[in-house]
Design goal:
Elements lengths: L20 E6 L3 E6 L4 E5 L14 E6 L6 E6 L3 E6 L4 E5 L14 E6 L6 E6 L3 E6 L4 E5 L14 E6 L6 E6 L3 E6 L4 E6 L11 E4 L4 E10 L6 E6 L3 E6 L4 E5 L14 E6 L5
Antiparallel strand pairs: 1-2, 2-3, 3-4, 5-6, 6-7, 7-8, 9-10, 10-11, 11-12, 13-14, 14-15, 15-17, 16-17, 18-19, 19-20, 20-21
Amino acid sequence: MGDSSTTTRVAPTAVAGGLKFIRLVSGGAFTCGVRTDSSAACWGYGAWGQLGNGLREDHRAPVAVLDGPNLVAASVGAAHGCALAADSSALCWGKNDFGQLGDSTRSDTAAPVRVRDGRKFVAVAVGFQHSCGLLATGEAYCWGDNQLAQLGDTSVAQSSVPIPVAGAFVFTRLSAGGSHTCGITADHTARCWGSDANGQLGSAPTHTCVGLSVTGPCSPVPQLVGGGYGFVEISAGTQHTCAVATDQRAYCWGLNSNGQLGSASLVAVAASLALDAQP
């Protein structure tokens, strides 16, 4: 919660320290934010170094991410985080058992390390155990866990350095979910790849991925989300996805066991479905 306590809150509570933020992102059990001075701070569970402050311990109030000035964006996953620096380089920290930090190792680190290969990104997107970056040219690169093809690569092999997403698509937006990734292309279509166990890709799976510890339906190459809609924003969750269409209406697809699709039912949907009660 960041309020210097461990008390569960049912109403908005101010984060301690009086810091001012321009962006906030929440992960497995921790939160990070980019401050108005372009530095970053994180708080919460920190056993894997995911707070980025050089320590592997929990913090109930914000702590500064090391080497964190001149940051413009951040994204966090289950136990790691990445940020985009003003020079367009990507920095990551935290758990690294699948190479999700992109530094060519699988060693956890409690301080930010630069993603290898020196690519210049305009956006970063962090999933459960994988990360992705978007180049100014619209090319997407991903790294980390790939057992369910969430890197967009047909090998389903883990990668500790960025690898290109298959298909040569030009993306304008990226979002990384539990074990799938989605993007919006320059022509406003949505495409998703990776795990499709609950229809979260918005299309039928093309393969069965067999990883080291998991097997399931998947699509290694970005697949067109069904429905024929044009989209401007997209957000991938653990096993569902939502997007904002060009008409500003919201559409969701995938797992719906808790009503996360907003469709007034609990049935999983494998194609984009409009939220109920929209004007």
